[in-house]
Amino acid sequence: MIKKKEDIQSGSRPELSRRELPEAPEITLLTEDDLYFFNEGTHVRLYEKLGAHPLIINEQKGTYFAVWAPNARQVSVTGNFNDWDRARHPLQPRGQSGIWEGFIPGVGKGALYKYHIISRYRGYEVDKADPVAIYQETPPNTASIVWDIEYTWGDQAWMEKRHVHNRLGAPIAIYEIHPGSWKRLPGEGYRSLSYRELAEQLAEYIQQMGFTHVEFLPVMEHPFFGSWGYQTTGYFAPTSRYGSPQDFMHLIDCLHRHGIGVILDWVPSHFPTDEHGPGFFDGTHLYEHADAKKGFHPDWKSYIFNYGRAEVQSFLLSSALFWLDKYHADGLRVDAVASMLYLDYSRKEGEWIPNKYGGRENLEAIAFLRKFNDEVYKSYPDVQTIAEESTAWPLVSRPTYVGGLGFGMKWDMGWMHDTLQFISRDPIYRKYHHNDLVFRMLYAFNESFVLSLSHDEVVYGKGSLIGKMPGDDWQKFANLRLLLGYMYSQPGKKLLFMGAELGQWREWNHDESLDWYVLQYQRHAEIQKWVKDLNQLYRSEPALYELDCDQAGFEWVDANDALQSVISFVRKGSSTDDILLVICNFTPATYLKYKVGAPRGGYWKELLNSDDEEYGGSGQGNLEETMAHKIPWHGRPYSMEITLPPLAVVCFKSGGPKT
């Protein structure tokens, strides 16, 4: 628990100007500018200076250590190289910067270490893992490991052209994965795959399925496996559960060489209270806000960063840039942004402190998020930052210079909620809730959205996606195909959590493998093929991705056929030749000669039909090209009559006059 401010004698230290900076000791990585920018909150490469760095000084091998602990009376390095003796290797304070540093000869790569900190207050002593360590022991062990991050990359071709794959006008279909439970090895104690074992298997699978990117649930080191990585303690260390930093680099490298982008979940919103972590680091609330009304999260029982503290800003900014710099990540998905934006998030009246204007907005967190996005895009304009933001906060994915938060994209949580609520209803009642389908288009282009069916929807008793579908088994699979086809045809980038493409019946369990065995059954293999073909269609038709975030790429044909639970719309690309017509039928009735308006005449070819027999459907559809005649309908100059299959989505492409 956070100790009350009155329980800790509050010391203050004077601000450090450039003139007051001390001379650097004989062995140091820290320049005067490093200290100045760190204390100013603008240092974004702390991982090059703080932490443990193996060096050779005058032909003598050793390790340079540096840690921020401004309220410590004494800091020493303990480890397996000195029998964890707290007195053998003290560090020295670097003037008034708050940083302690020192060089220990003979300590090399692979050494285990911690910092023993004696606070200036109330005799507090503690052993802490290094907050800037690049490698940690495998939990439940908690020591840091002296390591390097040298690696020979083979992804130059990807890195040179990734701006093409990451831009808003590119097809982005993300496969979200928890690396510890994608596949397990039953013959070896049912353990998770290592990073290297995962590399080829995952890359080949994603390539086969047609996804463009993979998004990893947080790989940053975390003590509790059941947190899925969202309770992070190692902000610079990939979890050692699956291998070394170089092993994780190999995984990303392999994905890149297969033409697959990599997005990492990043959690600057909170961190756990485990004693070895950053919390109460030097006997004071160093990283977290001291007041529990701002510094302790009531839902997750975790600490909240003090975003107004300059050094904390440097720490978090450096963590973000680290994964883009050293691990070649193509994007960062920022978790729980809403919890950062609002001071009253999950708090009752009297449990939160208004800002200086009396409002509920967390001004320091807002400023930090803008600073984070500015720094990321300044250094890496070819990546994406993605916000998981669950409210109607304006301009989340708009530039900071127009008052936005500066993210590249935002998860559309409203679409997810409304769509799952609608699709889970018995089709007989859907006509009364038609607004759940069409409401999204009132705000669809206010942000650059990602449509996400993520891990959050298949845990904590919510059941699997297939389990949410109403009806008998045939209808459940038909509804799931319809849901996925509807998602892929809507404006916005796509994200699907692992297992949904299998039609897995059980909800996700992080302690077990996905139910790959279900693919021996025809219906599950058919849903997997449907997802594969959806990705193929999405990537091959510019009308489905080029203008995902531009209102010019979407037009309703008919949004009002609530009685029959049918919607129809047009998707357009930047070329006038790229035009698709999509019709979705959310009832189990087959509509013969369903009349739909068309934006142009001539022949239209059915590109994809979720009711096709190869996907487990009833086989109803439009095998021959369909002619749109000059008969106005739905406000369009042309119309055509089609067979609209039950619980299905069909997609047509304009082919022009038949020759």
Description:
With 659 residues, the protein is of the alpha/beta class. It folds into three domains: 5-145, Immunoglobulins (Immunoglobulin-like); 172-270 and 318-351 and 366-544, TIM Barrel, CATH 3.20.20.80; 551-656, Immunoglobulin-like, CATH 2.60.40.1180. 23% of the residues lie in helices and 24% in strands. The strands form eight sheets. The chain has an eight-stranded parallel β-barrel, surrounded by five helices. A six-stranded antiparallel β-sheet has the order 23-24-25-30-27-28. A hairpin with a 5-residue loop joins strand 6 and strand 7. It starts with 31 loop residues before the first helix and ends with a strand.
Task: Give a nutshell description of this structure.
This protein is of the alpha/beta class and 659 residues long.
